[in-house]
Each structure stands twice: as C-alpha cells, then as structure tokens.
TrEMBL record:
Signal peptide: none annotated. InterPro entries: ATPase_PP-loop_MJ1638 (IPR012096), Ni-pincer_cofactor_biosynth (IPR052188), QueC (IPR018317), Rossmann-like_a/b/a_fold (IPR014729). Coiled coil: none annotated. This is ExsB family protein. It comes from the Archaea. Pfam families: QueC.
Length: 261
C-alpha cells in the first residue's frame, strides 16, 4: 500500500475512533487499546508484527467479548489474530450448503482450534438466493452479505455482545468503526488499521497459518456461469485494487478466476 494512501486512511480511522469514544459508544479500555494498536500500526510493520505476537497487549485488561464473522479465509482469520489482543473472541460462521462444503467446514474447525477461540456455526436458509442466482436473476453477494450480517447481529444481540468484527477491507477510514444497532459497534479491524491482503498473509505466516483458496464461494461461482454477473464481481475486485488492499497482480489473478481463462 502506498504510504500516502495508508497515512490518509489511518488518519481517518483515528478520527472515527475518537468520535466513537466521544459519543460514549465504546468503553475507555477498548478505546485505549484500539488507540495503542493504531499507533503501533502507524510505525514500522515489523514492530506491528512483534506487538501482535507479544503478551504485553493482554496484561491488565479485562477483555470484552466480540463476535468475529468467520469464513475461514485470510481476512477473517487475520482479523481474529489482531482482535484477540483486545477482545475475548467468539468466532461465528454462518453456514449453508450453497456457500460451504464439508472440506471448508473442517478447515474452519481446525483453524479455530489452533487459534484456541470459541466458535459456533449458525445455519441459514439461502434457498431463495440460490434459486435467483441459478436463474441469473440476481448476483448473490449483496443479498447473501445482508443475510449473514443480520444473523451475526442477531447473535450479538441475543448474547449481549457489544462488538462485531468483520474482515471486509473496503470499509476504510471513517467507515471502519461505527455504531450499528442497540449499542452494538461494528469494527472492520483490518480496514481500521489499513492492513492490506499481502500484509495479512505475512501476519498469518508469522502465526504458522497457511490459507490457500480460490476466489469466491460456491454460490458466487454458480453466479459466474452467467456472463452478465461476472462484471459485478470484477467491479468489486477493481475497487479493492484501487483502494490498494490487494495488489494489481492479485486483482488480475482474481479476475482470471472469475472469467475462467
């Protein structure tokens, strides 16, 4: 990520954090720990890595709970590693046969066991979205994403959890931390820290985690059988390239995955 882009994004996310605290939407302890993490990230990346691996971040802090929307991919796994320095993590995976096979489920279980965090699957009905995708009526991502977010929010509400963490890297700057509903705060922690995908892979490597996935889930690959739907996915990939959260090389690879060249 270009230094100027990173600096601008970090300045914006810092303002969002300050505003959230000024509105009394987060506790002083969480504010201070997020601020500390933000300041370390603003320095040398090796120092940031060392901070994530150290025990000092866990001292003298009674951790509040946070739900992490966990897909088992690079972004959500890195989000857990980063957020675990501040929160007591509960990973929640929204499960459907249309977006997850048995191999992916097993991988998720192995990951959460290795990370030593609690984890739950929540089953969700995606039949209408699948049928509309199969027929070429709608691209699935928007509706699927909304369904997943609603399930995660409902889980947080039922369990009295005030923080939901997502790995989506496009919610940059002031959008990276915000109140969403009933005293619950949404934190896109990688966006908050301007951590690009290649940096996430370095973090995972430091924690001896190797994740190799092709682009997209089963449902989105079903959508790509319709040429008209490929362009919507490609537009998102290009947004990620423009935001510099993925490199042009990775963007090209993902596009080729979409169009199957």
């Amino acid at each position: 990520m270009d230094t100027e882009v990173k600096t601008t994004a970090l300045e914006s996310s810092k303002k969002a954090l300050d505003l959230t605290y000024q509105k009394n939407e987060i506790s002083k302890e969480i504010y201070e720990k997020l601020l500390e993490l933000h300041e370390v990230r603003n320095k040398d990346f090796d120092e940031f890595l060392a901070y994530l691996k150290s025990d000092i971040t866990n001292q003298n802090l009674k951790k509040e709970k946070a739900v992490v929307a966990f897909s088992g991919g690079v972004d959500s796994t890195t989000s857990i590693i980063v957020a675990n320095n501040i929160f007591e993590i509960c990973a929640v995976t929204v499960r459907s046969k249309y977006i997850m096979d048995a191999k992916t489920e097993q991988s998720i279980l192995e990951l959460t066991n290795s990370l030593n965090i609690s984890h739950e699957f929540i089953d969700v009905n995606l039949n209408p979205i699948f049928e509309d995708t199969k027929s070429g009526k709608y691209h699935p991502c928007g509706r699927c994403h909304s369904t997943v977010e609603a399930e995660i929010l409902n889980y947080a509400e039922k369990n009295g959890i005030k923080y939901i963490i997502y790995g989506d890297m496009l919610s940059i700057g002031h959008l990276s931390i915000k109140k969403v509903d009933k005293g619950i705060n949404r934190l896109n922690i990688l966006s908050f820290l301007s951590v690009a995908k290649d940096e996430s892979r370095i973090i995972l490597n430091e924690f001896k985690i190797d994740i190799n996935q092709s682009y997209g889930c089963q449902l989105i690959r079903k959508a790509h059988k319709h040429k008209s739907m490929q362009k919507f996915t490609i537009q998102r990939i290009l947004r990620e390239v423009r935001a510099q959260v993925i490199t042009p090389e990775e963007g090209l690879k993902n596009i080729l995955d979409v169009i199957k060249i």
